[in-house]
Every structure is written in structure tokens, then in C-alpha cells.
Amino acid sequence: MTSGRSLNRYLLFITLAYFTLGFVHIGFALSGLLCMTIPFVLVFRDRKKSWCQGYCPRAQFFDLFRKTGDTAKTPGFLLERKTRDLVLSYFCMNLFFIAASTMMVAAGNMAPIDRVRILIIFEIPFAMPQLLSQPVLPPALLHFSYRIYSMMTTSFLVGTLLALLYRPRTWCRVCPVSTMSDRVLKNVIQTSREA
Ligand code: SF4
């Protein structure tokens, strides 16, 4: 019988589907918000990082890069707390920019940016083909969708590069979802002990 863990491997197709569907209609990018909320729902429910331990589609994708021989050692700086904090700060700053720019677009003070940008500023040199022209998104939602897709693409590319260079899940060392889950978990456990 196929174990739950081996079934989880198929979750990697969610990662592939996510990035492919962005080329069909950018509105699908909004599903990336699930990857930012479900991990925390599970932390509260299970009192452990169930998402990271079994369900994360991205980690399942990184596992494709398992090597048979020796793997290069993860550089020390990626294991340091300050690197995790730095990546978390970048993530929060990115979310802040996304929220602020979306509000500006909604208020009519800025045109939507309908291009994918890597690391916030580096625009990819082509417009994403959109195989579905409907539904036409309101400007603010269009902008928000592209920004979420950009953020997901950036972390995916960095994670894939790290997986190619080092161990498959090297990205998990600095992943902001993991860092925040650790902190939420610590607080949840602490609160339940004090209760
Ligand atoms: S650390 Fe991030 S990439 Fe790794 S399993 Fe958890 S959520 Fe997924």
C-alpha cells in the first residue's frame, strides 16, 4: 500500500501547476496566499509544523534534486539565525510593498505593474502570455496578483538554485514560513503551558 509520505511526493505537482497556471491567467497566482496561511493554521491545530513536515508542495519539488553522491556542504552563513532574520525581514518588506502599492493602484495613484519582478526590482524582459483573457481583473487585483506571483517566483528560483548547489531542502533553512512557524509555535506552546 502506498504510504501517506509517498503520496505527499505528488504534491510537487501543485508547485508545477501554480507556475504554469500563471501563464493561463494571472488570477491563479492568488492561490499562493494559501501557502502563506495554511502552514499557520496547521501550527495552531497540530502544535507542530505539519506543513513543513509533510505537505509543502515546494519542498516536495526541491526533493527532486536529491543527489546520489556527496552533496556540497551548506554554507555556514545559511545556518545562522541572522540570515533567517534577514530573509524574514525581506519577506515582510516585500509584503508591505505589495500591500502599499496595491492600495495606491486601488486609489488611482499608480498604474498596475503587470510584469513579473524578481527580488522586487528586476523585471523579467517579457510580458507573461495570458491564455485566458477572462475574467478581466480590476487594476488593483491585477497588480496584487502579479506581485504575489513575483514573490513566489523569487523564492522558488532561489530555493531551486540552493537545491541544485547544496541539499534539496537548503531553502528551508531560511524560509520565512518556517521561521515564522517556529516563532508562532513557541508562543502557542508557551501560552498553553501558562494556561
Ligand atoms: S521551510 Fe518553507 S519551503 Fe521548506 S517545507 Fe517549510 S514552508 Fe516549505
TrEMBL record:
> Where does the 4Fe-4S ferredoxin-type domain lie?
28-67, 155-182
Keywords noted in UniProt: Membrane, Transmembrane, Transmembrane helix
TM segment ranges? 12-41, 87-106, 148-166
Q: Which InterPro entries match?
A: 4Fe4S_Fe-S-bd (IPR017896)
Give the domain of life.
Bacteria
UniProt key word Transmembrane helix: yes
Signal peptide extent: none
Q: What is this protein called?
A: 4Fe-4S ferredoxin-type domain-containing protein
Q: Which organism is it from?
A: Marispirochaeta aestuarii
